[in-house]
Structures are given as structure tokens and as C-alpha cells.
Amino acid sequence: MTKRCDVSIRGVEISFGAVRVLEKLDLEVAQSEFLVLLGPSGCGKSTLLNAIAGLIDVQAGKVWIGGRNVTWEEPKDRDIAMVFQSYALYPRMTVRGNMSFGLKVAGMPSAEIEKRVAAAAAMLKITELLDRRPAELSGGQRQRVAIGRALVRDAGVYLFDEPLSNLDAQLRAELRVEIKRLHHRLAATMIYVTHDQIEALTLADRIAVMKDRVIQQLGTPNEIYRTPANRFVASFVGSPA
Ligand code: ADP
Ligand code: MG
Fold first, then answer.
1. In the chain, N or C terminus with fewer CB closer than 10 Å?
2. pTM
3. What spacing in Å lies between the alpha carbon of 197 and ligand 1's midpoint?
4. How far, in Å, is the centroid of ligand 1 from the Cα of 13?
5. Where is the ABC transporter domain (predicted)?
6. What is the DSSP letter of 59?
7. Assembly ipTM
8. 10 Å Cβ neighbour count for 38?
9. Rounded distance between C-alpha atoms, residue 148 and residue 143, angstroms
10. How far apart are CA 119 and CA 122, in angstroms?
């Protein structure tokens, strides 16, 4: 894995009908950074992530990935890989099939696919599960497969939308450590959406706290926690009074 793209969001605006969800939003994510989008449910985190992925069109503003203006490019041309909360695995394919599928569709030679799947599976400790189907896996194992499927893409940016929200506390803690380890190991650019303060504070290089259509504060976990910009940020991250 060698590509590490920066991401630049400039003046992005998105509404659904009459409801404005993002307002003139700016955000710069550095190469190899772990950036967490943190905020309460409904504040627009997924909307922003989907706009970066190209799954939603912006009504104003621009999205740059790796120095390229991708605002009007299809998701497949954006050099991103995404992990969803709901795993979104293909139920009839094995783990190996799930991890290989996108690469096969892209026409990659099977030797290269095998190499990538083996490497990602080893990193995520799911090598023994490669011949199983999703129904034969626990929630934590499924989410490892979903992360593995993103890793094999060798993307410039990895996007995570609340990947641990469906898991119990024990597994969440375990996978948090795993994701942190992956980030260190790959030095990949990662943008990670969560409403969980602990996840944000433990994973992030920087946190963007979102509410009311805008980013309320952008800073390191220490800055956000120690010097919250306003009362909302303070109460949301549980800063000492
Ligand atoms: P979050 O991920 O932070 O929970 P979302 O980005 O999913 O928030 O949603 C932000 C707001 O936009 C919410 O009020 C949500 O109801 C609304 N919304 C999201 N997607 C759509 C859509 N496709 N159509 C209409 N409203 C939407
Ligand atoms: Mg969401």
C-alpha cells in the first residue's frame, strides 16, 4: 500500500429538499492522517462522508482527493474505499469471494488478487475464515471482513461510517485497537465517522466536531478535550468543567 491521498473539501453545501444539512463546509485532511468526524446522530456526518465518496452530489463547493478535483467523478474513479456500519457483505459469497469481488470486476490478475487477499486477511486475523460465508461469522468477524474488503483495494483514502456501532462494547474496544494498528502500519489516510466520543478521542490524529450544518471545532483530541471551543463541544466530548 503506497498511495496516501490528501483530501480537501471546499465550500461544500448539501440540502435534502428544503433542509440544509451542510453549509459552506471546509475541511483539509492531510496525507496519512486519521481524521474523525464526530457529532450527534443526524448532524450530517454520513452526508459529508458520502459526498467525499461521490455517493451524493454536492450542490455547491468542491471535493479534491490526492490533488485532483473529483467533484463530478464517479465513486469508482475517486481512489477511495469505504466501510459501512452494516458490513454490506455479499451473503452468498465466501469471505474470500467478498474480498476478491471488487478486484475481479476491475480485471486484476488472480495471482495479484490472491496476494492482496492473503495480506489483508493476515493483517485482520481472518485467514482461517476465508472459506466461510457471512452467515457463519460473528458480528466482529463480519466487520473485519468488511474492513479487509476495503484494504485490498489499496485506495488513497479509506472512509469508515460508524463501523463499530453494531458491535458490543468488548468487540468495539478490540476492533478499535485493530483499526489504530492498521493505521500505524499502513500510514493510510483515513476519515472515520462516529458519534462515540471514546472512539474519537482514542483513534484520531484530529477530530472535527460537527453540529448544526458546520464543523464546530477542528483539533487534536487533546485540544478538543482540554480547550473546547464552545459549550456544545465541551458537553459532547465530556470535557472537565
Ligand atoms: P449522521 O450521519 O450525522 O447521523 P446524516 O448525514 O445521515 O447524519 O443525516 C443528516 C440529516 O440529513 C438528517 O437530518 C437526515 O435525516 C437527513 N438526510 C440524510 N440523508 C437524507 C436523504 N437521502 N433524504 C432526505 N434527508 C436525508
Ligand atoms: Mg450516519
1. C
2. 0.95
3. 20
4. 13
5. 7-237
6. S
7. 0.98
8. 29
9. 8
10. 5
